[in-house]
What does this fold into?
Amino acid sequence: MIYEEFTIKENGSLEGAKLTVYIQQYSESLKINDRPLILLCPGGAYAYTSDREAEPIALAFMAKGYHVAVLRYSCAPAVFPTALMELGRSILLIREHAKEWHVKEDSIVIQGCSAGGHLAASYACNWMNDFLADGMNITYADRIKLRPNGLMLCYPVITSGKFAHHDSIKNLLGDNYHELKEMMSLENAVNEHVPRTFIWHTFTDAAVPVENSLLFATALRAHDINTELHIFPDGCHGLALANELTASQEMKEIAPCAEPWIDLAATWMKKYW
It folds into this structure.
């Protein structure tokens, strides 16, 4: 395995913003050469990035044959669009090293849990917009390199409306909360540039209501964007792998009915990439 860490520095980035890559070692004895890469954005209400939604999920996807990267993006007091630019820079870095790491350049999927899901979905809705490219000093010709090929969302924060996780939106916007709040409601930001999407949530999520995923999936449907959606009947928020490997000290994040999500996600990956 190739394991490397890269400092990510954009306007407004905090110390500690970094990309960690987990690359399956190339071997001539293996039939598979280039592989897709899944770029993980852990949750944490834009206050921190969760360890439970980082390396354990990365290693689970590696075991299924994928390259993986984890973005530890800047959280509060950093504000929008710093984390968005850090995600864009990470995708550029991965494409820059694609040949060296044997990454399929047209198979880079961004994944996010909770607030990390908001970041991933926000990026998917905004990667082609001028404000992002201008903030990163990306030329028009290079803008296409920012494009994600797929989107994978795990119990994502989506809306800033009735079903919002308000702490996430407040942490993301800081003093700009009232000015930019509506812009953060991603069910209204979906457009034809959003890639095919995989989403899962639990019906009983009390922190980030399932309506977040339903609103986003409905918007994707309205734009004819191919989407796979799973709603599991039980489980609290922040399940990660939904088993004992990623449970907290209280062990409340064990939900057998939701544990198959990663197998379903891998099947979705295999179908398209």
In short: Residues 206 and 236 are 7 Å apart (CA to CA). The first helix runs from residue 55 to 63. The mean pLDDT is 97. The longest strand covers residues 103-113.
